[in-house]
Amino acid sequence: MSTAMNFGSKSFQPRPPDKGSFPLDHFGECKSFKEKFMRCLRDNNFENASCRSASKEYLECRMERQLMAPEPLEKLGFRDLTGHSEAGTGV
C-alpha cells in the first residue's frame, strides 16, 4: 500500500488583477512623471490629495505608452481635474 503524499490535490488558481496586468516601465518612459509625483508626496508629508495633479500626469503617461490599460480619468477619480462636471450636480 502506498502512503505517498499528493501535493497536487489542492492547487492554487491564480487570478489576474481586476484591471489587468501593468507592465513595468523598463525603458523609463514615465520616470520623470513618477519622480515628480514621489517628490510631491515627500514634500507634502505623503498627503496624496496634495499631489493629485502629478498623479494624474503619471497615469496619463502610462496610458499613452500602453503601460496600463486606458481608462477614463473620471473613473480613476480625477473628474475635478478633467473639466467634466457630474450631470445635474453643478459640480
UniProtKB/TrEMBL annotation:
Q: Where is there biased composition of kind Polar residues?
A: 1-12
- The answer to whether the entry has keyword RNA-binding is no
Record localization: Cytoplasm
> What GO biological process terms does the UniProt entry carry, in alphabetical order?
mitochondrial respiratory chain complex IV assembly
Q: Name one GO cellular component term.
A: mitochondrial intermembrane space
Q: Does the keyword Ribonucleoprotein apply?
A: no
Q: Name one Pfam family in it.
A: CHCH
Q: Which UniProt keywords apply?
A: Cytoplasm, Disulfide bond
Task: Report the protein name in the record.
Answer: Cytochrome c oxidase assembly protein COX19
Q: Which organism is it from?
A: Erinaceus europaeus
